Each structure stands twice: as C-alpha cells, then as structure tokens.
Amino acid sequence: MTEATAASTAPAPEKHGFQAEVRELLRLMIHSLYSHREIFLRELISNASDANDKLRFLALAQPDLLAGESELKIWIDFDAGKRTLSIRDNGIGMNREEAITHLGTIAKSGTADFFKRLTGDQQKDSQLIGQFGVGFYSAFIVAEEIEVYSRKAGEPAASGIRWASKADGEFTIEPAARDERGTMVVLHLKEEAKEFADSWRLRSLVRRYSDHIAFSVLMRKEGEASLDWEPANQGQALWTRPRSDLKDEEYKEFYQHIAHDFAEPLAWSHNKVEGKREYTSLLYVPGRAPFDLYQRDASRGLKLYVRRVFIMDDAEQFLPMYLRFFRGVLDSNDLPLNVSRELLQKDAEVEAMRAALTKRALDLLARIAKEEPEKYAMFWKEFGPVLKEGTGEDAANRDKILPLLRFASTHEESDEPKVTLADYVARIKTGQERIYYLISDSIAAARGSPYLETLRSKGIEVLLLADRVDEWMMGYAREFEGKRFKDVARGDLELGTLEDAADKTASEEAVKENKKLLKRIKDALDERVSEVKVSSRLADSPAVLVLDEGDMGAQMRRILAATGQAVPEAKPKIEINVGHPLIKRLDATTAEDEFGELALLVYDQAKLAESGVVANPGEFVRRLNKLLGQLMAPG
Ligand code: ADP
Ligand code: MG
C-alpha cells in the first residue's frame, strides 16, 4: 500500500515529506534564482494555462466536464495588506492523489543526473536550474507559504482539497470542499517580495510573460476592491497572429513560455501553410543546450494543437531525432481532434508534415549560417554534435546537412570548428580527389598526430574531428561535391596525382631494400599486426598503425567498450618510416632479443598515437627506460 492510499482514511490535515530531489531543488532555487524571481509568475500562469488546455482537450469527448463554466480563464488577485497573491484557473484541477504526487515529487527524466551535475557554485547552478525548468516550486522564491486549493473537473465539491507548505521539507493535505472547478494557488509573500502584491507590477509581468497565451488572464479593474474583472493580456495564441504584427520581443517571450528557458532563443521560423494541407508552425532554435540533450528518454518535440485546441506536449513525430533541440508549436487544421501518439506514428499526413518541417528547420539553420555566422558558431557549439547525427540518420537530407557542418582543420590556427566543406573544396589542391580527415580524442591530439606528417609536408588540408559521434557520422558522410571523404588513419592515402613519380619509385625501392627488415619486424610483432609495410605517410615518426577501411576505429571501440559491449578485434597494419633513425637502429640490431624489445617499443608508441592506450603500460615504460638508459650510458 502506498503512503497516499494509506492516508486517505486518516484524519486531516496530514503531513507528507517532499521527495529528496524536491527538497534539494527548493533549497537551491531559493538561494540561486534570486535575481530572476519574477519568473514564478510565468510558471504559475503557465501551469494554469496547461490545466485549462488539458480540460478543453478532455471536454472534446466529455462536454459535460465544462458544466457550469464553459469559458476557460485565469484570474490573478492580490491583497497588499495581507501580502497574498493568488492565481486561479478553471481547468482540469487535481484530486488528492494527484496533488500529492504532482506537488511533492519531480517526474522529469534525468533528474538524478541533473543533481549530480550541480557544482555548489551559485552562478553555474542557477544556469543549470534554468535549463532544468523550475515549475511550480519556483513560487517558493517569493512565498514563505503556499496554499493550493483544487477540485478536479467532473468531481463533486466535497472532493476538493487544500495543500499547503512552508518549503520546510514537508507539505500538508486535507479535504476542503470547493464550489469552483480547477485550481487556486495562494502565495503568502515574503516581506522582501511584497512588491508583487501590486496591480501595476503584476499587469506588466503578465503582459511581458503571458500576453500570448490562449486564455484571458483577468485582474480586478481598479486595484483590489473592485468587483469588475478585465483582461490583463491579449489572450490570443501568438502563432495565430500574422507575422507582420509580431515583434521580436513577443517571439522571445513566447519561447520562454513554452521552453521554460531563462535564456533567449537564437532564432525562429514562423510559417502558415495553406492549400491541400493547412497548418501553422513556429520553430525555435534555443540559445543553449538543455541539460538532458543526450538523454534518450528526455522529452522532445513540439507542442501540438489541432484547430487551436491543445492536444499534447512533446509531439515527437514532427521532427527527426537529430533536430530534437528545436522547440515550438504546431497547429494543424487537418488532424482529427482525437489524434493520439499511436495514430501520429503511422499517419501519412504526419509523415508529410515531418518532411516539410525538417526541411524548414534545416533551412532556418542554413539561413543563420549564411547571414549570422557568429550566431551560427554559438549554435554549433551547443548543438553541433547533435546535428551531426543527421548525417547518418537522414540520408534524404544529407545534402542539406553536410554544408551545415563545421570543422577544425590543419589549415586554421584556432581549434574552433570554423571550416565548411565548401571552404575545403574551394581551396583544394589541383589533382586532389579526396577530402582528408582525422579523428582523434581532441583537436590538440589530432594536430600532433603522426598520420598528418606527409600530408602536411605536401600542404594538403586535413579536417580534424574529435566529437564522440564523428567516426559514426563519417561512416555515412561518403562524399561532398563529388569528392570522397578519406580517413587518413586507414588504408591507402589515395593521393593519386598528388604523389609524384619520384615519390613512387622511391617507395618501391624502399620496399625492395627493406624486405628482410619487414619480415623480421613481422616475426617480432607476431599476431599484433596483420602486415608490416613501408610507409608513405610519415616524415618524423618511426611508425604508425593503419586500419583497413572497414575496420572499427579507436573512437568506436572506446565507445563500445564503455557501454560494456564486445569489441570486435581489428588487426592493423604497421607502417614504418625506413628513413627514421630508430628504424635504422632496429635494422642494424643483430641480437634477436634486443631486436624484439625495440620492435615492441616501436609498435607500442604507434599504438599510443593511434588510440591513446597501450596494452601493457608497465612493459612499455620499462622498455622505454631501458633504451633511455642505454642512450645516457657513458661511452
Ligand atoms: P510541469 O508544469 O513542467 O509539469 P510544474 O512543477 O510546473 O511542472 O507542475 C507540476 C505538476 O503539477 C504539473 O505537471 C501538473 O500536473 C500539476 N499542476 C501544477 N499546477 C496545476 C494547476 N494549476 N492545475 C492542475 N495541475 C497543476
Ligand atoms: Mg509548469
């Protein structure tokens, strides 16, 4: 039996403890959101608006739920003398069990992860809390006590409840008969927050944060005593208004309302589609990544309306996974009002809208990239790795996605990803048929990599990648403007005409001359490598490991290993630089055991450069020290 059901027979009021996460959130919010405290009003109006939306939706099937008051509204009232402020709606309401769970726990996915990321640094944490979304609990920033009165739509007056808390770790709940349907939240304001019990202040906040919600927010006409109520907002859903009437400020505020974000959106696209299919969409690119961007079960998608009636949050079917960071609204004139998630999944109309919205979203990104490169750089920093997923996920739009990618490069001083594929192709060498790239742990590590040596000496540009998705992405990227992508750590470099005749003859000769050495190294390294070759990639390093085109690279192997999956064995080739002193020394070594030690040392450092790890670090260090000892020995 749960605490809640056990309690329903007990006398009232009874005490409940908040979930530990709620207690933590309350403590943090009260301390770190002080400079944003007015957002509580946006959150409470937003909850009232959600409650009205939910009731309107349920009433489609059960019209008598609206009995008594069919017009859905929100009322704000205050009493400066008593320092109280109330927000009331006539929406769906909450019964006892719902109040206990909804106002005592946090249901969001990734909550535990969020709390792990808090640092104790107020500034950083307040940023994080902003991204997490504070909701109802934010009212405790301004209130020393909160009472919630509620009665669920369709239930009798006697089923009403009163919930109350002083944010001291617990809340009480008790029966409280209510004639009115819906919820009233009463804030007992802290002394230092009494400014909010003021008509002018409240009206300006309502206009700022809630002008565009679809319900009237009513306030008393002349201050506190009047019996006449008047709207304090426009009460018209923002997306239904013509673009030309809307100011940037209004778009930004609407974004903050739907995304519960403190920060401004980076850009938006508002469109009305007419004809065979009719719908309005408003898509936003947020200014920063939410805390749960990489959580598979995080909520994503658009707010779905059908002919202005709210249907659901997080309608995921209208944008692909790799555009999950978009926020916004979709209002369809054609979908049935009783559309469900299941229906959305197989509907051809939805499929067509998804294709159009995906295109629109990518066009919006392309427009920012072209017109506001600095903004695009901010976007790329926050969401670049997510957009990269599209290269593999969305073959149909790959041609639109590739130009949106940004890379670090050997031809740029800075490690910031700035280079586009078009930049690369524009300055490609005559005769160069490949777009070269290298994947490493970090851009700095990539810059120091031995795989770049020959290419660098020939002045060939190499794109440098270091995001987790990169190996996966490049496996799908294939080509850009007719030039194939080529991983410089795999297979043959395919230099084509960039390799001159002299290079070729030299390397053919080197192979002939070093046949015996190659065989000795292969014997010494045995199963570690599939083949020993003379390298054409190297200038300064003695050796590198080279994978075949189809082999799994170091990054994918690491990711698989980290998730506990079996990692397929890939046996690399080792390429040696026959001009390097260490290899010359190896060639001159006659004692077989010394040869073996040196060969392993060469192998291990090549392995280190490839994947950042060696099989046996202790052995590696011992061999290295032995060699250093010999070098330092007198004589
Ligand atoms: P969110 O709105 O993101 O779900 P909140 O913390 O704002 O989170 O609210 C928590 C829950 O409390 C809501 O999901 C809803 O179920 C319930 N709730 C809050 N305010 C109201 C209200 N005015 N009417 C009905 N339910 C409400
Ligand atoms: Mg809310």
Report on the structure:
This protein is an alpha+beta fold and 635 residues long. The chain has four domains: 11-235, Heat Shock Protein 90; 239-376, Ribosomal Protein S5, domain 2; 407-490, 3-Layer(aba) Sandwich (Rossmann fold); 501-632, Heat shock protein 90, C-terminal domain (Four Helix Bundle (Hemerythrin (Met), subunit A), Up-down Bundle), CATH 1.20.120.790. Strands 1-6-5-4-7-3-2-8-9 form a nine-stranded mixed β-sheet, covered by helices on one side. Adenosine-5'-diphosphate (ADP) binds at residues 43, 47-48, 50-51, 89, 91-94, 102-103, 133, 135-137, 183.
List the helices and strands and how they pair.
Layout: H1 3-7, E1 14-17, H2 20-32, H3 39-61, E2 73-79, E3 84-89, H4 96-102, H5 111-117, H6 122-132, E4 143-151, E5 161-165, E6 170-175, E7 182-189, H7 199-210, E8 216-220, E9 229-231, H8 248-259, E10 265-273, E11 279-286, E12 302-306, E13 309-315, E14 327-332, H9 341-346, H10 348-371, H11 373-393, H12 398-401, E15 408-409, H13 421-426, E16 434-439, H14 443-447, H15 453-457, E17 462-465, H16 470-477, E18 479-480, E19 483-487, H17 501-513, H18 515-525, E20 531-534, E21 543-546, H19 554-562, E22 573-576, H20 581-588, H21 592-611, H22 617-632
Parallel strand pairs: 2-8, 12-14, 16-17, 16-19, 20-22
Antiparallel strand pairs: 1-6, 2-3, 3-7, 4-5, 4-7, 5-6, 8-9, 10-11, 11-14, 12-13, 15-17, 18-19, 21-22
The site of adenosine-5'-diphosphate has 17 residues, from helix 3.
